[in-house]
Design goal:
Layout (H helix, E strand, L loop, with lengths): L24 H11 L5 H8 L3 H14 L1
Helix pairs in contact: 1-2, 1-3
């Protein structure tokens, strides 16, 4: 896999694939939240193989629990 390429699904057999791709969605969402001021949420969701709506629902639940 070339550096900087977009992963279209969460299956990757290459040792160069980032480990975050194999995490549970809640772990991926937390990672996105930590970077949302630096990167586009839309792009991160696409690259990491999760939906934007799922991310925003997760984020709303986190706010409700706080």
């Amino acid at each position: 896999m070339k550096e900087g390429s977009i992963v279209k699904n969460r299956r990757c057999d290459s040792p160069s694939c980032p480990g975050i791709l194999y995490e549970k969605p809640r772990v991926i969402f937390a990672h996105i939240r930590s970077l949302e001021e630096t990167y586009s949420v839309e792009q991160m969701c696409e690259v990491l193989g999760v939906s934007k709506s799922g991310y925003y629902k997760w984020k709303a639940r986190q706010s409700d629990q706080a």
